[in-house]
Amino acid sequence: MNATFLNLSFAFYLAALILYAAGYMFAKPGLRRTGHAALAAAWLLQTLFLMYRWRASGHVPLANQFESLVSMSWGITALAFCFHRLAPGDWLGPAISALSLALLGLCALLDSTVAPLVPALRSNWLLLHVSVIMLAYAALALSFLASAVYLTTDTDQALDRFNERAMGLGYLLLTAGIILGAVWANEAWGSYWSWDPKETWSLITWIVYTAAIHLRRTHRWQGRSMAWFSVAGFAFVLFTYFGVNYLMSGLHSYAG
């Protein structure tokens, strides 16, 4: 039943994307509204999957790449619902559906076995630290999607403001997540910072977004310049999340 929920979620994300595409091609607003309903159903099914996963494993589903990726996809859709009134045009629903399909498709390639927690993760900090980081990545994914749309379509000032708000939220959550991780590291390993590859690349990513926000606030960077910065910043997010786990070894190697 647990896997069924995730498979059904994938099917509803696909249905949402098809409905959005059909609504755009045939100029049928009703199809787009049905796409919204399918997107909501996909998210609810993901929620049920995560609840069952939590119950079956006995721990929050954030302990490995598979669980955190499903959770990040869940967070992206959840934040999209929160941000939808700020998104100009009809791009957000199709973009979220396509991205969620890609992420859940990638999940199918990962080990989904329910396993006991390794000793380092048997802490309440797992929920506090990793959930905040996943929400940070989700918000920065929204910033990336807005930037990609901005760079490939007729530009809209409202889309630039959407990018600013999503990036700002992602930056605040990333800052909080790094601080929580440092406190957890001190409790687990006796040091707030050890220049582990995951820590180092998280800091690099934070510096990139710090620079982006600084340039926006003090030098009035906006529009295409900031959109390109957002795209580049999200490349650092992807490397921190995926690349470090598979290309480098360190204290966070169990995350892969």
Molecular structure report:
The protein has 256 residues and is mostly helical. It has a domain at 119-255. Helix content is 77%, strand content 0%. The protein is built from 8 helices and no strands. It has helices spanning 2-25, 29-57, 65-83, 92-107, 125-152, 157-189, 197-219, 223-247. It starts with a helix and ends in a 9-residue tail after the last helix. The model has no long low-confidence stretch (mean pLDDT 92).
Topology:
Elements: H1 2-25, H2 29-57, H3 65-83, H4 92-107, H5 125-152, H6 157-189, H7 197-219, H8 223-247
Helix pairs in contact: 1-2, 1-4, 2-3, 3-4, 3-5, 5-6, 5-8, 6-7, 6-8, 7-8
Summarize this structure as a short list of keywords or feature phrases.
77% helix, mainly alpha
